């Protein structure tokens, strides 16, 4: 399933140029794709399995491969939120939404908000925005702090970069990623149109 999701997310523009990433938890194991490879071409034999402390459990076929740079960030969502899958998107809507400023994106009273677990139509969705770093793994500490500070969020944005989204399993993580992508796109368009909710 991880490879299939990589193909789908690449087709959506969420993993262009080998960016982005996905991981799925299976009990105490976390499966992650390798770093710097074309996500739409990742095969089962290329995947790593690590434990929740990041220790290697199953290596990929090619020993030259390295786990995705997102791996320490994925582990925070698994440990702090009992996530079953985490998606990292470089989608344009997420990235553009962060360029509009602020330390969090806020949006409410849109039907699609119901697609986020624990949220109703009238709830305000608050997605924290982190400042980007030179290396992806350097985001791990600020991501952890943002997850702790925003117990209702299922996503954290990174300025001029993208978004991390999680769910209790891959199905919910995929649904959340699609809903957030919709909300980020609408947020940008609302600002263009000069309307607010
Ligand atoms: Zn990234």
Automatic annotation (TrEMBL):
InterPro entries, A to Z: Aldolase_II/adducin_N, Aldolase_II/adducin_N_sf, MethylthioRu-1-P_deHdtase_MtnB
Pfam family, one: Aldolase_II
Originating species: Sandaracinus amylolyticus
Co-factor remark: Binds 1 zinc ion per subunit.
Pathway(s) the chain acts in: Amino-acid biosynthesis; L-methionine biosynthesis via salvage pathway; L-methionine from S-methyl-5-thio-alpha-D-ribose 1-phosphate: step 2/6
Record bears the keyword Cell cycle: no
Annotated positions binding Zn(2+): 88, 90
Source taxon at top rank: Bacteria
Keyword set, alphabetical order: Amino-acid biosynthesis, Lyase, Metal-binding, Methionine biosynthesis, Zinc
GO biological process: L-methionine salvage from methylthioadenosine
Protein known as: Methylthioribulose-1-phosphate dehydratase
GO molecular function, a single term: zinc ion binding
Cofactor: Zn(2+)
Family: Belongs to the aldolase class II family. MtnB subfamily.
GO cellular component annotations of the record: cytoplasm
Catalytic activity annotation: 5-(methylsulfanyl)-D-ribulose 1-phosphate = 5-methylsulfanyl-2,3-dioxopentyl phosphate + H2O
EC number in record: 4.2.1.109
Domain Class II aldolase/adducin N-terminal: 2-188
Role, per record: Catalyzes the dehydration of methylthioribulose-1-phosphate (MTRu-1-P) into 2,3-diketo-5-methylthiopentyl-1-phosphate (DK-MTP-1-P).
